[in-house]
Design goal:
mainly alpha; 2 helices; 85% helix
Length: 46
């Protein structure tokens, strides 16, 4: 798990800024759906 996990962390570090950027400009009413979608992405990567 160790090496794979470290690579996944690096991928997430690249993705997180994009998520925050999208989050900032995202419609607040859809924020919960967006959270679920990004969480699903996160779990998919793991």
């Amino acid at each position: 798990m160790g090496r794979n996990f470290r690579r996944n962390i690096q991928i997430h570090l690249k993705i997180l800024p994009l998520l925050f950027f999208a989050f900032k400009f995202y419609n607040p009413s859809n924020r919960a759906a967006f959270c679920k979608a990004s969480m699903a992405e996160f779990l998919k990567f793991r």
